[in-house]
Design a protein that fits this description.
It is built from 8 helices and no strands. It has helices at 9-20, 24-38, 49-57, 60-68, 86-103, 113-117, 122-139, 164-171.
Length: 199
Amino acid sequence: MANRGPSYGLSREVQEKIEQKYDADLENKLVDWIILQCAEDIEHPPPGRTHFQKWLMDGTVLCKLINSLYPPGQEPIPKISESKMAFKQMEQISQFLKAAETYGVRTTDIFQTVDLWEGKDMAAVQRTLMALGSVAVTKDDGCYRGEPSWFHRKAQQNRRGFSEEQLRQGQNVIGLQMGSNKGASQAGMTGYGTPRQIM
């Protein structure tokens, strides 16, 4: 981790708000899924944000996770380094992020390397892992291991096809958003500008 002193004032308030978004229950669910998905001898980290960060920080668990979502022989990260050198670990996190985006995770759901490396925004790391799990469940290609109910299934495209005749008929219908003129008449209306007769 970087040697940073404590933050004060507005910086501290912003960091506290970011830290409030972290979900300990979600952490447990994600750890269980990662261990089950990787199907390797990965040790379970002690509970807590800092332990979760240290568990993922070198990038090896993340790389094993993304590789396990592909069929054997098609893994996006062929060589996973167990190096203790900081730049190698950060490079592995970047490789995971690139592979997750290729897999189908939206760019807006992907955390920055420093969010994990420096522990700045572990809630963003959780969001990325949740998005990855959702994409894996939605793909339903047989590589996902775990309960399908752990993640939300993403909506799929559902195109509708209309014939020319159906489209022409739709132009003749007044939608209810436009309002209705049923029962409306101009009986009793006077011309604009004429004074009201008050008796």
